[in-house]
Amino acid sequence: MSTYSLSDGLASSAPRTSRAPLLATWIRESGVGVLASIAWIAFGLSCLWWEDVGDWSRTHSLGIAAFIIAAVALFGTVGADYLGSAGQALRKRAPWLVALGVFLTLWEVATAKFAWLPLPFFPPPQAIIEVYTDDLPKLLDSVFASIKLQLGGYLIGATIGFLTGVSIGWSRAVGYWVHPVLRFIGPLPATAWLPIAFFTFPSSWSASTFLIALATGFPVTVLTWSGVASVSNAYYDVARTLGAKPSFLVLKVAIPAALPHVFVGLFMGLGSSFAVLVVAEMIGVKAGLGWYLQWAQGWAAYANMYAALIVMSLLCSGAITLLFAIRDRLLVWQKGTVKW
Amino acid sequence: MVAAAALAEIATPPAAGAALDIEQVSHAFDIDGAELPVLSDVSISVEPGEFVALLGPSGCGKSTLLRLVAGLDKPKAGRLREDEERIRSPHPSRVVVFQDPTLFPWRSVWDNVALGLEAQGILKSQRHRVDDALDLVGLSSFRNAYPHQLSGGMAQRVALARALVNDPKILILDEPLGKLDSLTRITMQAELVSLWQRKGFTTLLVTHDAEEALVLANRVIVFSDRPARVKADIRVDRPYPRHRGDPYLADLRRQILGLLGLDATW
Ligand SMILES: Nc1ncnc2c1ncn2[C@@H]1O[C@H](COP(=O)(O)OP(=O)(O)O)[C@@H](O)[C@H]1O
Ligand SMILES: [Mg+2]
């Protein structure tokens, strides 16, 4: 600052005014990290302080793990400037770490320590951790079975739906024959086919694949079709005057122009196919996370159910994230979704 | 004006364009069972390399005529010929630039310009033509941009490059400058004349602006109200670059506005 002011004469005030904003920024940047650390220490203490009301083997380890996370949260946020992007990412998520630590503490106290929540139905965190460590092979088998079934059915359904949608949108003759069938069968929930499918298909696995493909195929078909049908004629005119043949019009004009619609269909198909997957696994296929849930319920193993639910939600949300990533990559040209 | 130097250098274009014969063409649309006549016995004979402007009241059928020339639609009666050959379907020797640039939003600028060569299956060996066309319209530095990142004038220049990359014999322009601001318009008019002079293609330009027609064209054809008939066929024998204030052009303009039913009260 170049202008003369009263404070220039007061030498003692200078360091204080320059330090106060520093303290403020420090609190703003690292304060939440410290809070997160405290919350996780509280969780760790809540694990170790009181005796468990039940018989769980992972309480001690969980407490130690909570302290480790508390340490990571503390040093990671306070020292974020030395940790590069990882440090910044941690700082950004610090408020969530606080919330999570508080939630876990409450959960721990309300279940394992004082059983405020009725016990077999609300297992403590350590019971769920115990499932992940002790029942891992079975859980992993289920995860792989689910992924295999879902992926196979989804890919088949999406491919057939996409091809059907393009054909209906493009060819009047195909539209004439397929459209009524689509209107008749499409809106039926895929699960309604379940009893018939399990009798008519050679294996429950192929029946489930069919059902998942059906659930995926309908929205993909309809949205691909509407996407192709809504492509402006001006694009075709331009391409035709430039010498485009029909195959070029389909592959290089209709399909790329319809792609945003196709992705809406793919998202909807993904959602409805998850529902079918779980039901099919519970009822038909003796494998997968749906079946694991069913099996856990049969044994009143509630911790296993929560553990499987958490894994399931991670998988589903992972699949959606993956689809988003593919979409963002293919549709970079769209206004607003450009990522350089 | 920067383009003035380029405009001055050539007066008569080399004959790389095709002749166009529109012979007694009539056309009509069916609207709810009723017939809407749009073109009525239109005959126009265009010399190779000529720059013809088509003027007429809005909705009289100018765009319809251009679609017939492009081969996008077939006339109800009459014949259209390019260099003595019947026009039956679109062909890259006749390219249209529409009022909207209609760039493909999912393709980068370069890929948009490459469209014609790609559709004809000759892009692999002719990639340099795309670069040349982009140079021609001065947009080389935007080759990787997407259409939504361009201004209206830039998008229309890309559309022009997309047409020119095919080395058309007949360039068909349907009010290509209609939506641009007046400054961009004047610049692009100059660019258009200089391109036409360098390349020598036959040009058919629909415009609603009599002054634009007179500054650009060898010949101005004035249409009647729908169904369009040729009302007047006016030669504009003036060297390029033309000046908007030229009294000869002002006189023609008054005449044309009179034909369009407007008293020249300006
Ligand atoms: N595809 C079409 N179907 C029915 N009517 C049309 C079609 N295209 C144009 N018309 C009608 O033909 C007339 C001429 O249109 P157009 O050639 O676009 O006029 P303009 O001279 O303004 O370019 C208008 O009345 C328009 O409504
Ligand atoms: Mg028009």
Describe the structure.
The complex is a heterodimer of chains A (340) and B (266). Chain A has helices at residues 13-49, 59-78, 84-113, 125-134, 136-170, 172-185, 194-200, 204-229, 233-241, 246-283, 289-298, 302-330. Chain A is 78% helix and 0% strand. With 340 residues, chain A is an all-alpha fold. Chain A has 2 domains: 2-119, no CATH class; 136-333, Orthogonal Bundle (MetI-like fold). Residues 1-14 of chain A have low confidence and may be disordered. In chain A, helix 10 (246-283) packs antiparallel against helix 12 (302-330). Chain B has 266 residues and is an alpha/beta fold. Chain B has one domain (2-105, 168-265): Rossmann fold (3-Layer(aba) Sandwich), CATH 3.40.50. In chain B, 33% of the residues lie in helices and 24% in strands. Chain B is built from 9 helices and 10 strands. Chain B has helices spanning 3-9, 62-70, 109-113, 115-119, 127-136, 152-164, 182-199, 210-216, 247-259, and strands at 20-31, 34-46, 51-55, 77-82, 85-86, 94-97, 170-174, 202-206, 219-223, 230-235. In chain B, a hairpin with a 2-residue loop joins strand 4 (77-82) and strand 5 (85-86). In chain B, helix 5 packs across helix 6 and helix 8 crosses helix 9. The two termini of chain B are 26 Å apart. Classes of the chains: A mainly alpha (340), B alpha/beta (266). Chains A and B meet through helix 9 and helix 10 of A and strand 6 and helix 4 of B. Adenosine-5'-diphosphate binds at residues 29, 31, 36, 38, 56, 58-64, 226 of chain B. Magnesium ion binds next to helix 2 of chain B.
